[in-house]
Design goal:
350 residues, 2 domains, two-stranded antiparallel ribbon, globular, membrane, transmembrane helix
Length: 350
């Protein structure tokens, strides 16, 4: 995908003789209007990664150590900037060549159909982007959704069924071709998507760092009637209030993006312009405040309670289980007949 993007950008820039007048044209917006437009664009960019801000543990849990995740800090902003620059250069060059600022590379390669060489180039570029879309959706969307729905309904779903279900839901039921029908529609969708993801990320952040202090009872997380059930109905009302308290004020802005017939005042429009930042920090504040005054004491434990690792014959254990196995052998000796507790199973991970 990267090579295909490089080649396409180079070709269209050379064909146009540079970026054209786009980079030298005077700004059409000024003052506060420009600032709010910048915030709206930033929110759309954040929306693209707002899902990974919530479900990145689906992938980071396989890291060799906790420091591996810090590579995201420089890598993600760098490549997001590069890809955005590709789009700006391509649109500016397309304006010079065809008189239309094509916002997607698919519209550019659609102009290559007049010659056999152009059609061949379009085929290979489209194939590369098709493979890239499949790869991105499998890694960033299918895996996370399958994990979530398997946890919510293990009787009916496993990872394979969850993947098939989300492929149908995201590929057909949600009509994604409408979302990418135009650049404006796509940006509106990415911006609107953030209003639901921001409170999720904020509540997770507040609960892990501020409320629980990184102290969880891991086995209890998998007990339907455990301490994390939060009452009779299995709902943490503090999280529900924080979620709806953030989303409801943003719904008018969402309605105006979906339907042009909905008109709003400048205040509501401006609020929607930075909905992810607003939603994240407000949900952190609301959730932490509610837990401060109305704590759920059963979940406030003094130290971490970790899970158990079972070592099977012929199966490679991970680093943690190997460390635990070594400690167990030192305590019990090489023979496991000294004590009923000295077995290869139920090794506590500390």
């Amino acid at each position: 995908m990267t090579k295909g993007g490089h080649l396409k950008v180079i070709w269209v820039a050379v064909r146009a003789g540079g970026g054209g007048d786009f980079f030298h044209a005077p700004s059409q917006v000024h003052g506060s209007e420009r600032a709010w437009l910048w915030l709206s664009s930033l929110t759309s960019v954040i929306g693209g990664y707002s899902t990974l801000a919530v479900n990145i543990p689906d992938f980071s849990r396989f890291s060799k150590d906790s420091r591996a995740q810090f590579w995201q800090l420089p890598v993600i902003p760098f490549f997001k900037t590069i890809v955005a620059l590709f789009g700006v250069v391509s649109a500016a060059a397309a304006q010079e060549i065809w008189g239309v600022p094509y916002w997607t590379p698919l519209e550019i390669i659609a102009t290559w159909q007049n010659t056999p060489g152009g059609r061949a180039a379009a085929f290979f570029c489209a194939s590369i982007w098709l493979l890239a879309q499949i790869s991105v959706n499998i890694s960033a969307n299918a895996v996370s959704f399958a994990n979530d729905i398997t946890t919510l309904a293990p009787k009916w779903f496993n990872n394979r069924r969850g993947t098939v279900f989300v492929a149908f839901l995201g590929g057909w039921a949600l009509c994604p071709w409408i979302i990418v029908a135009s650049g404006k529609a796509f940006m509106n969708f990415m911006s609107a998507y953030s209003i639901f993801m921001a409170p999720m990320a904020g509540i997770l952040f507040a609960d892990y760092w501020l409320v629980k202090g990184r102290r969880y009872d891991v086995p209890a997380l998998y007990e339907p009637q455990g301490i994390y059930r939060y009452g009779k109905y299995g709902t943490n009302w503090r999280a529900a209030i924080a979620t709806f308290g953030v989303i409801i004020p943003l719904l008018p802005g969402l309605a105006s993006k979906v339907s042009s017939s909905v008109s709003l005042n400048d205040g509501l429009n401006n609020l929607f312009s930075f909905n992810w930042l607003y939603g994240f920090f407000l949900s952190v504040f609301i959730y932490y405040t509610l837990n401060y005054f109305f704590p759920h004491k059963d979940t406030l434990i003094p130290s971490v309670v970790t899970g158990f690792e079972t070592t099977l014959i012929g199966v490679d254990s991970d680093t943690e289980s190997q460390r635990a196995e070594g400690v167990k052998k030192q305590e019990c000796g090489e023979s496991v007949e000294k004590s009923p507790s000295c077995t290869d199973t139920n090794l506590a991970i500390s």
